[in-house]
Design a protein that fits this description.
2 domains; alpha+beta; 7 helices; Glutaredoxin; Glutathione S-transferase Yfyf (Class Pi), Chain A, domain 2; 221 residues
């Protein structure tokens, strides 16, 4: 049995869920609140971070370790594809969204709108939100520019780069904060991604206490 300990507001968790769906890996989900982790999580991953991947009694923690493991064990549905140059571009974009987008956009928005609300009963800091929204527009411009000349973010074919970006954006979209109307190329790209069968369960996600934006599960926005 494959078990993934996750939470819907964890982009890294969504990334691994999408990878497993693309690779048709049957799994069971167990939800943990990132702001209120149980002692079990720290026993499995001393860093206290999600996701945690468990199979046959073996534990792998950290989205990079898990994603590389999934690529290693499943060669039928590769997500890092092409020649060395193409694979480098996929990995570059994965790093962009896993690290840069997370740091400049997701971390602030999710912390202010979700973590503070449930962990500390605090109101969001408007300045932090303003900074995150400004950064989001910068990233949307970049996605829009990439999609102007490419079918997918890293080139002609769907790849792990698209998964990393969609994992981040889907949480922001749940909150209704992605300015899609200003970025038609990015909107068309995301529509293609969220129409994939692997995205079906992501669109069913429910963050307790927060309703999704009305368009969130609508494949045509």
């Amino acid at each position: 049995m494959v078990l993934l300990i996750h939470h819907p507001v964890s982009a890294a968790s969504r990334k691994i869920r999408l990878m497993m769906a693309e690779k048709h890996i049957l799994h069971v989900l167990k939800e943990e609140e990132p702001w209120n982790l149980s002692s079990q999580v720290y026993k499995l991953n001393v860093a206290g971070e999600l996701p945690i991947f468990i199979f046959d009694g073996n534990v792998i923690s950290g989205n990079y370790a898990i994603s590389e493991f999934l690529e290693e064990i499943n060669h039928d549905s590769p997500l890092i594809i092409g020649d060395a140059k193409q694979k480098a571009e996929i990995r570059r974009l994965c790093e962009w969204f896993d690290l840069k987008f997370e740091k400049e956009v997701s971390r602030n928005l999710i912390n202010e709108k979700i973590y503070k609300r449930f962990a500390n009963k605090q109101a969001p800091d408007s300045q932090h939100l303003k900074t995150a929204y400004n950064n989001l527009n910068f990233h949307m411009e970049y996605i829009d520019w990439l999609c102007e000349s490419r079918n997918y973010l890293a080139g002609d074919h769907f790849s792990l780069a698209d998964i990393c970006a969609a994992a981040q954006l889907s949480i922001i979209d749940y909150l209704g904060d992605v300015p899609w109307e200003g970025y038609k190329n990015a909107k068309l790209w995301y529509s293609k991604i969220k129409s994939r069968p692997s995205f079906k369960d992501i669109l069913k996600d429910n963050i307790k206490g927060i309703l999704p934006a009305k368009h969130y599960a609508n494949l045509d926005f």
